[in-house]
Structures are given as C-alpha cells and as structure tokens.
Amino acid sequence: VSEMLQNMCIRNLVRKYCQGVPAERKVQLEQKVVTSAVFRGKKEGYQQSINQPFADTRLKESEINPRVLQLIQGEKIKYVTPVIKYDRNGFKARERLLVLTQSSACVVEMAKIKQKIDYSTLKGISTSNLSDGIVVIHVPEDNKQKGDAILHCEHIFETVTKLCMLANKQNLVKVVQGSLRFRIGSGKEGTMVFTVGQEPQVFKAKNGQLTVV
C-alpha cells in the first residue's frame, strides 16, 4: 500500500507541475528535447547551449522588406535569422536572411527570394561535429533548385532545431565529422572539409574544396 501511495503521490505532483507550466516554457522545453536528440554528444558547444533560451525569432516581420512578404504570398512566418550564404561556385560569402514559414525555408536577399525550399522536398540537413555555425540544407536534384544551400548561422542549435521541427524531419539531421558532400547543381557535387585551427575562417582551398576552420 505504501508503494502504491508513493506512486500516486509522484504522479499527482508531476501532473500539477505539467499543468502549471506556462505555454512559452512548454514550447522551450519541446524545442530543447529535439535539440538534445539531434546534437547531444555529437556537436561541440551543445552543453553551453542548454541554458540559453531559444528566441521566437531573430528579426521581426516588420524588419523584412515588404516585397518579400508579398512574394511569400501570405505564408505564416515562424522564424527569421540573419545568415551568411556561401555561393556553390566560388564560395563567395553573401549576407542573407533565412525565413522559415509554415511550409518552406526561404533564403532572402533584400527584396528578393533567392531560394525557396519546400519542406516536403527537403532531403536532409547537415552540420559538423565542431563548434562552427555551418549548416547545409540538402535539396532534390531537379530544375526548380540550383543546388544545396550552404549557410552560416550564429545561433546554429536554435536555427537547426526550428528548421527540422517545422519540416518535421528531425531524423534527417546529420552531424558529420571531417567532411561532407553537397550538390552544386547540374549533377555536380562539391566537398566541404571541417578542421581545427587557431582562428575561425571559411575559405576556398587550393584544391577547390570549401574549408571550414
């Protein structure tokens, strides 16, 4: 009887706690659970990210160019963050916005949508096991897409978590070691190499590979 009462008491305490959790706190916990499943024990910096609350968004909708809002055609915007996008050819760094809506991820330049990736077609999300902020969004090989999107995000755990949750593709996130392959377009592929150095940098090596330090 004592054991039964103890179990009932514990269940009652848990029930009261769950009912008393504010909605915002519940959202945070749900996101952190996904982050743990994807990154725990796999990527450097995860432990330091645990106590850092995720922001609802890094930019307000009012800070987005009205032309972009028109092009999105009324899709509900869920998250926006500044990113650095690397060209697939030449790997030139360009300032962009990553806009996540209810149904797609958009790479935005000022008043233009440079690339729109529907979640239903998203093939995978890759990042390294090191402390860099690189994420590669893999897309299908078709005429609608020029190739995979190579981005640098300041808040990598937050951004990847929100992306995979919105796309409902947590199982497609890969944390790689050493290198990864990405699609350039027209059947071509490139290689990205991850290494450790004294200063963080991203550059095109002499062998043509994108090197992330």
From TrEMBL:
Residues 43-213 form the TH1 domain. One of its GO terms (cellular component) is myosin complex. Signal peptide: none annotated. InterPro entries: Myosin_TH1. GO terms for molecular function: cytoskeletal motor activity. It comes from the Eukaryota. This is MYO1H protein. The gene is Myo1h_1.
